[in-house]
Amino acid sequence: MAKQRKNLTINKDNIKKTSVVESTISATQNQEFARPINPVLNYPNIGPKGGFGANVDLTKYYGKGYDDITNRVYYTSKTLLKNTKAFTEETQHTYIASGFNNFAEYLEIYSNAIGKSVVQSDITPALIENYLLHLRASELSFTTQKNRYTFLKSLLCRMNEKGYWLAVGNINLNSDFFPKNPFPNSNKRKKGEKPLPPYEKRQVVVALKQAIKPIYQKTESLSGYELTLCLLAMAIQTGINTQPLLNMTTDALSDHPLKDNRKLLRVLKKRGNNNQIRSLRKLEQFEVIQGVKLDVAYMIEKIIQLNALVRQESNSDLVFIYNKSKYSEQGAGSKSTSLQEVSLARNITKFIKEYDLNDEDGCTMKLNVSRIRKTFINDIYELSRENLLLTAQQANHSGTSTLDHYLQAPEQAKRNLGLMGEIRVKELTCVESNVPVGHCKDTINGDKAPKNGTFCNNFLGCFRCKSFVITGDDLHKLFSFYWAVVRNRYEFGRKEWKRHLRNVLKIVDEEVVPEFVKLGELQRVETEKERARTNPHPYWQNLDMLKVIL
């Protein structure tokens, strides 16, 4: 009889270390003494890449009178981390960093006030109202207060959903627990970043050109500061947001399918998981923003080449990855890291200080990628002659309504608006009737007037009207309209332009100008015509006013 073979299968449960197994505790009981062995939350997919992600250590919250709440926050967070599709790691991390962190400070004050530890049953509408008063009494901005409260509310709702906050019972938290709209009109009070004025933008561009020039001569890997300089230059050239740039990978560049003098840059936009695609011209033709002559495609390829070894050692495909200068303190495993918003802000501060960048008031300049993006979009808006559709397309916006948060009225527009108000008041108080291109003998009963008691507003009819009069003082307005007709031919629409405006140019050149020549005013005509071309009358910066009446 054959000898039976011994079963050598190893049961993993027999070798599991019981010291690292946390026992499951009922959420209904007081968890003040159910402190986890290692209360550290790890978010591996955020924070510097090439390191170990972002960790949130809850140890500092223990022993301050609200251990039960801290434990419930910990176990809720651990449960949420099992499904990052419902709530991303960034969102979960913000629950702790912005929501619970500030609330914990108030819980410590509240625990000392009531003389006992705070537990889940103590979180009542009254406590939330008192916390709101605590926020309003702080030095935080209105928007920051609103954000802190919103993230705390979301965290408490997740605790209730996961069964770690059952004291409230089965109620609708939004309608029956939390106060309704504690921060009214917060969207109107929020002040976003302003685009860089020309003076500041010029300083940044000149400083970047000086700072980046030595990078092209380097043969060793780039530091985090040098990568920041490259990222700022890319932001100025492309107008892409911070996170898509930081998360750029080595396969972001590709050949343009139609043009040899361009490259395609593809970056991932996390919101909605949409891809942003930018078409980059080569150096000789890439002059989208004045004063900038950097070749973005070449810069990206240079970064990939110089930091290839660092990328290989860290097994990462990110473009903005580098070796930390003092990695030995954190061990060999964390030798490399990637550029993140915190390190980016620190390096930008260093850049501002090194090149002494100041605003128009002489104060230290405030610089970030958000301001650069708004500057880019406003420049596109201005260069496209205020074409909203083209600007929205270049900004990767689905519609033009989102541009309200980016576009800023230029100083010239503000001056023109004030001047137009003065002109309009002068016209209304003047005895002689004025029109936007000249004078009219009678705007109510004139040759082309409607003769029904209303004012005539048919500007184009003026050129065929017997009541129309042009004086030497009207030449600036007349030629401003003339040049507006020339500039806006394609934007106005070719058919409409031929139908309504082509004859205007002919009348001015063949009928109006010869009459002034007969009076010996040729020099004045030429002067006013050139003045109108370079500095048009505010009424005729474009043909928007004409479109209203057609």
From TrEMBL:
Keywords from the UniProt entry: DNA recombination
UniProt xrefs under Gene3D superfamilies: Intergrase catalytic core
Signal peptide: none
GO biological process, one term: DNA integration
GO molecular function: DNA binding
Coiled coil: none
Protein name from the UniProt record: Core-binding (CB) domain-containing protein
